[in-house]
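Reviewer has doubts. Consider these tokens.
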Amino acid sequence: MRTTNRRRERYLGAVAADEGQIYVKRVLVTPLKVYFIGPELEESNRVTRHFSHKLDNFLRVTFVDEDFDSLSSYVLSSSRGRTNTEVYYRLLAILRLGIKLCGKDFQFLAFSASQLRENSLWMFADDDEVTGEYIRQWMGDFLSIRNVAKCAARMGQSFSTSTRTLDVPRGEVRQLSDVETFTPEGHKYCFSDGIGTISTEFATRVARRCRASTVPSAFQIRYGGYKGVVAVDPASCFKLSLRPSMSKFPSEQTTLDVLEKTRYIPSYLNREIISLLSTLEVPDEVFERMQAHQVELLDRMLLDSAATYDVLRVLYAGECHKLLVSMVLAGFSPVTEPYMRSLLQAFRAAQLLSLEKKSRIFVPKGRLLMGCLDEQRVLRYGQCFVQVSPLQGVPVEEEIHCDRGVTARNQAFAVTGSVVVAKNPCLHPGDVLVLEAVDVPELHHMVDCIVFPQQGPRPHPNECSGSDLDGDQYFVSWDSALIPPKRHPPMNYEAPPAMELDHSVRLEEIQEFFVNWITSDSLGVIAHAHLALSDWSELQTRDPKCMELARLYSVAVDFPKTGVPAVMPPELRPEQYPDFMEKRNKRTYISTRVIGKLYRSIRESHRDTNTSPLVSERSFDQQYDRALVVQGYQSHLEEAKFFKECYNSKLTSILNHYKVSEAEIMSGSIRSLARYSRRRQGDAMARVVLAAKALVKEARGWFDDGGEITENEACAKAFAWYHVTYHPEARKESDLLSFPWVVLVAIKKRNSARS
């Protein structure tokens, strides 16, 4: 292949955006400076898809401090919160005056709920065709909303990351009534808050547009001004059946956008859930045993392929899961294959760090499940229906069954018996529910979700941290060791009255609300105080101070909807902190409770999470697998070298931008990011993984770009990619190894089958 300059220009440069992905310019604003970063790859939303011809006019802006950490409230207001600082007015001025960049005048547009939590928002540069005001009018009619926070949240619905599926005319949408009940005191509860239904036939079509391998039982959606979940109803002939609780504002948009769908998601404990379960007298030994088992798996997985598979099937759900499973099944071993070992080492290091910093313990007998409603009315109060798919890549008969009741059926199983249910974040001991899982034939079409009854004095989702059914995901475990011996009544999660205006909300008021959010954001402060006080108190999370903090946390969670801030009094601030919170400049003590024990166990046994059990280090020549050789590969070497150069150039650009390693980005197990990404870690990590996926897909396209070739030619071509990466001479030039694995596993499978 002759490499012309024109061909080189075609393949070099930024990673090509895949379908549903866009490049967005980004800006970081500190109290003193403005940093221009990007553009960065991210998934699209309803607005950026519709106005894709104006992508250059969109700008993402995030407000951070000078160290690129989150802005603290005290930077924007005085210690007593009575007067605003110059930083407050600087931020407000930027929102009102905009940012000039590349000859364009970017002005405030809107922000989604997740962006608000990250102190981030969208700006747009008006031109003769499209203005920010036109975009807001296109999204829907917000004039009847008289609460600033609620109006901002409704505008933000259209900016949620989503997948565009199909158009649904209004005539094919049925209106359902909400299921409601009233307490003797007159308080209304809505059992169907945020959920409707979708027909089986239409769900199949939507699943196809989402590239799902199976038809999910429920989808989290946006449709016009509706938001929430639609669950499959086999009896329905309407494409969609929606409820009033799902309708947030009038809109003429008729495209169904999908944010999430029911699927296999492993479940993990965290410090909040462990604190609550410990309060409810689950023994410390249970958590210590679960953590020790997880660490044992992590230590063993680098030593032999069987142990690697054991870990992958129960623990790992990252982006490269399929590749690693394929490598194991094709006969590769982490002992001899350096790229495979590097991915597993990155995964292991990230897992150990999560155990140390968050007590993130894997729960084999559990799942993270989307909440749904029993439309058949067969469940009673105190019951639920839980049917889950098997562990990834594992036949159902090999599943780690619970020790009470599991019924296998069509590659899924229904759990029966007691289950513990919680929804993060959870601070009140009443947030932990124990329900009776029952197997009822009428709900057998519901998989990978937890179905709650529509009967009783109060909806179970509302008892779990004041949740609902608009897409919330619930921690569910049928492990008998985690069923708490004690119970506690749930908290009253009635939100404070929202502040209503006597006029339609103005854009200036939304801008001021955004800055006030940063000033009043107390979620982290309250959660840390709760964790510290519950560790110190004999009553743990039942301590009156902890109970008040749980109430304040609920108010703070509702602030983006109500505009009512949570004010934390000085007497609720801890005087000292447990060692596991790592408060370097505060008074600390050695915690004797279970989280302290778990923390020190990891720190003492795995002080350096970069280290791993001994694996034989082999020379470059030994690592070059001659069993992969395919005759005729020499004729593809020139092209392979060119594509390797293109691939490594794009990959290096991503690695340098985010300050991560190849193993971290390709495994999705990222321990830390560049300084400017630290406080938006989850958002930034998603973009890193997205960039890696896009690069892999682009490289596969290069491989297939030459037209139809025979199987032998394809294998020879693939080995040429391996040769130019793994040959000892090539290893001296670059230590990047992921390039050939885009296409390589098939060769090993073919050669293994022939031998």
User: Anything to note?
Assistant: Residues 393-409, 611-616 have pLDDT under 50 and may be disordered. The radius of gyration is 27 Å. The chain has 25 helices and 26 strands.
